[in-house]
Amino acid sequence: MAWNVFKFCTALRALGSIMIVFVLAIIGVTYYSVVIAHYVPSLFLGGFETYFAVVALILFHSLLVMVMWCYSSVVVTDPGGVPPNWRPLTDEEKGDADSLVASGYGSAELDSKQLVMPGDFLSLDIRFCHKCKQFKPPRTHHCSVCGRCILKMDHHCVWVVNCVGAFNYKYFLLFLFYTFLETTLVSLLLLRVLMEFFNDGEIDETPGSLVATFITFVLNLAFAPSILGFLIMHIALVGGNTTTIEAYEKKTSPKWRYDLGWKKNFQQVFGLEKFWFIPVYSKEDLRRMPALQGFEYPTRPDWELPQRH
C-alpha cells in the first residue's frame, strides 16, 4: 500500500498547534526553575550572591524578551504568498523603473481576457504551479502543508506552525540566535545550582522544584548544541544566498545564480539598515530592496540562463 503524503501533511497541521503549547510549556518551566525557584530568592542573600542574581536575571529576561518577540513574529508573519493570477512583468511593462528600487514587483495581474500559457515565460525562468494553477515567481515553492505557493520558501516548521519564507526568514534566524543564547545561559545558571547541590549534599528547596530544575537543565543542555548546529547551517545558507530547498536543487550547478557575495547576500535577508538584530524591517529597506518583497532577486553578472529546448 502506497504511503499517502497528504495524510502526513494533515498530521503536521495538527501537530503544529501542539508544538506551540510545548514551546510555551518549556518556557514556563524554565522561567520557574531559573527565576522563581532560585535567582529571585538569591536576591535576598546579600553580598556576591545578590549581585550575581541581579546580573543573571537581567540577562535572562533580556534574552527571553527577544526570544518571545522573534518567535511570535515567525508565527504570526505571513511568509509570503503568490497573489491570485500573478504573472511576471515584461520589460515593456516595467518601463524605465530603476531595478534597484522596489516598485511593486509582482503586483501585475492577468487580464481576464488575456490567455497566457505556462510556456510563455520560459525565457524568464518562471515556473508554473500545477497545484495552484498559476505562475510562481523565482525561488517560490509549493508547500503541501500550507496548501499554497510560498515566496522564497525555506521549509515548513512545525515548531512555529508556519512556513519559513521571504517575509519571516530573518525572524526565524533571530529566533534561533536568541534561543541558543538563552538555552546556553540557562544551562550555565542551573549547572551552578546543581553543582552546589551535589557538592553540599543538600539544598534549600522542595523535591518538586529540584525535579523541575533538573528537567529544565537537561532540556536546555540538549537544545543548545542542537540549535547551534541548525544556526550554523542557516548562516552558511545565508552566506551563499540559498534556502534549504535550493541547497538540494543546486547540487549539480557549479555556480549559484543568486550568490552575489557575502555582504549582498546578508543584506537580502537582514536589510541595509542597522536593524539586523531585531525582527523588523525599515521602510527604507523595503523600498530599496525588491528581494525583501519576495518577487524578484538580482543575479550574478556572470550567470546566464540555461537554454531550454
Secondary structure: elements and pairs:
Layout (H helix, E strand, L loop, with lengths): L4 H35 L7 H30 L14 H4 L32 E3 L4 E3 L4 E3 L4 E3 L4 E3 L4 E3 L4 H32 L6 H33 L4 H6 L12 H9 L12 H6 L21
Antiparallel strand pairs: 1-2, 3-4, 5-6
Helix pairs in contact: 1-4, 1-5, 2-4, 4-5
Task: Describe this structure as you would to a colleague.
The protein is mainly alpha-helical and 309 residues long. It has a domain at 5-80 and 170-293. Helices cover 50% and strands 6% of the residues. The protein contains 8 helices and 6 strands, in the order H-H-H-E-E-E-E-E-E-H-H-H-H-H. The strands form 3 sheets. The protein has a two-stranded antiparallel ribbon. Strand 3 (141-143) and strand 4 form a beta hairpin. It is elongated and about 75 Å long.
The radius of gyration over CA amounts to: 24 Å
Strand order, main sheet: write it out.
1-2
* Separation of the first and last Cα atoms: 38 Å
Order of helices and strands: HHHEEEEEEHHHHH
Helix content: 40-55%
Briefly characterize the structure.
Helices cover 50% and strands 6% of the residues.
